[in-house]
Write a structure and sequence with these properties.
Layout (H helix, E strand, L loop, with lengths): L1 H25 L5 H13 L5 H30 L1 H11 L3 H22 L5 H4 L1 H6 L4 H26 L3 H29 L8
Helix pairs in contact: 1-2, 1-3, 2-3, 2-8, 3-8, 5-8
Pfam family, one: VTT_dom
Membrane topology: Multi-pass membrane protein
Protein name: Alkaline phosphatase
Length: 202
């Protein structure tokens, strides 16, 4: 994976960073930690400037997250009801859960979007309910950009400091990402097997 990302960065420069970070937020298995870390290595070697690297990475992050926000906004939470009624068993959701999530985002959505920028997997997933709850577009973009800029700066700085040793870190990032994915899938299977509609609980 490192070789693939390095090739994109070498060929596309800042546009390559933008494209990779946008894709990372649409298809989460591509780790932003490696993308921005390798970008930091490029800064250390004089191939990029730190400010432009962070700007390109943050713009890509916002673009990728806006994709899922737009999907949620397009269908809205009311448009989701037929889907929930039919497939809620496999999502372990009932309509009351969707309404509660929507109310939560109306009240506290801004800081949730900001905080989730620092969490693997959730930083992408949070964009969908933000769109479904019709969070104001400016607010979503502002909080997404703010959280992403901080997180991307940390990752780029780590790559800048570690430089050549970053590839050693990549050996650990891959297994950790796989472990997190397996954990999420395992939790989902457990939820599906133990979930019961409210009418059948108690």
């Amino acid at each position: 994976m490192t070789a693939f990302i390095l090739e994109w960065i070498a060929r596309g420069g800042y546009w390559g960073i933008f494209a990779l970070m946008a894709l990372e937020n649409i298809v989460p298995p591509i780790p932003s930690e490696v993308i921005m870390g390798l970008g930091g290595m490029a800064v250390a070697r004089g191939h990029m400037q730190l400010g432009w690297l962070i700007a390109a990475g943050t713009a890509g992050t916002v673009a990728g997250n806006y994709f899922w926000y737009a999907v949620g906004r397009r269908f809205g939470y009311l448009g989701l009801r037929p889907f929930i009624d039919r497939w809620g068993r496999w999502l372990t959701l009932e309509w009351e859960d969707v309404e509660r999530i929507t109310r939560f985002f109306h009240d506290r959505g801004g800081w949730v979007v900001f905080v989730f920028r620092f969490m693997p997997t959730f930083r992408t997933m949070v964009s969908l309910p933000a769109g479904m709850s019709a969070m104001p577009r400016w607010k979503f973009l502002l909080w997404t950009a703010a959280g992403s800029a901080i997180w991307n700066s940390v990752l780029a700085a780590a790559g800048l400091i570690l430089d050549r040793r970053f590839q050693e870190l990549d050996r650990y990032v891959g297994p950790v990402a796989v472990a997190l994915t397996v954990g999420i899938v395992g939790f989902y299977i457990y939820r599906v097997m133990t979930w019961r509609p409210r009418a059948r609980r108690g």
